[in-house]
Here is the input.
Amino acid sequence: MRQFKKGSLEMILLCLIAQGETYGYELLTRLNSGGASVLGYAREGTVYPILYRLQDAGLIRCRMAPSAANGGAKKYYALTERGRETLGELIAFWRAYARCVEDFIGEVPGEETAAWKSSI
Amino acid sequence: MRQFKKGSLEMILLCLIAQGETYGYELLTRLNSGGASVLGYAREGTVYPILYRLQDAGLIRCRMAPSAANGGAKKYYALTERGRETLGELIAFWRAYARCVEDFIGEVPGEETAAWKSSI
DNA sequence: ATTACTATTTAGTAATACTAAGTATAGCGC
DNA sequence: GCGCTATACTTAGTATTACTAAATAGTAAT
Here is the structure.
């Protein structure tokens, strides 16, 4: 089932960074505390490469912080202006996409359309 | 944006087959008429390999049909019992997953939670 | 000094979808 | 018959995204 995750992880990480400057390890733990049961457990090898991609794409910027009280040096990430714009587009697209998938599901015999669909 | 599609195409094809026995080319055209603007245009090289995977997994079964009035021979697919069960699980999982993603979006400043969420 | 926790990096692999081409059948007009 | 179009299926090669698994390194407590 993990395949559903593909593609939306980038958007989810952008969502988390949009809430305020943060760093990789914290993103990892927040990702795994909010929805790990559905998303599956994400490890370092999943999260860090996405951050590098997002930075290469100019959607987030990075600030080095020296070693904190406990642990190694951190790389704090924040959204760029372009990242904020892109995140808005991604969210709009995600919702259109989810709606489209729900339309396909709604035509399956025995699968009622989700309650929210008729309430929009 | 196309990356959202990854993983859910299998489920969408199962949804379409669940509506009744059908064949690859028709799946292709139905896929592209229902939501191509959001999903992106799917080609043969995308759809047929998925059908082979689904068949290998025992979720659909195949029946050959001789050349029809117009065009080549068709391979009609139908859900197996296992396919029907799996589709139900996939739909449940998809909805839990979409809900989880919406939760992450809901925490983004400026992004209101979708209306349906509060109505469930 | 060993353990535990924090924090980042990366090499190799797997899964999924896309591109782009090819094969083959049938009907139609000429 | 021949080319054209539409139908229908196949496949090789590539790209993208995520996962596995391991390594590196700093801090602090025992």
Observations:
- The two ends of chain B are 28 Å apart (CA to CA).
- Chain B touches chain A through 46 residues (CB under 8 Å).
- The longest helix of chain B spans residues 81-106.
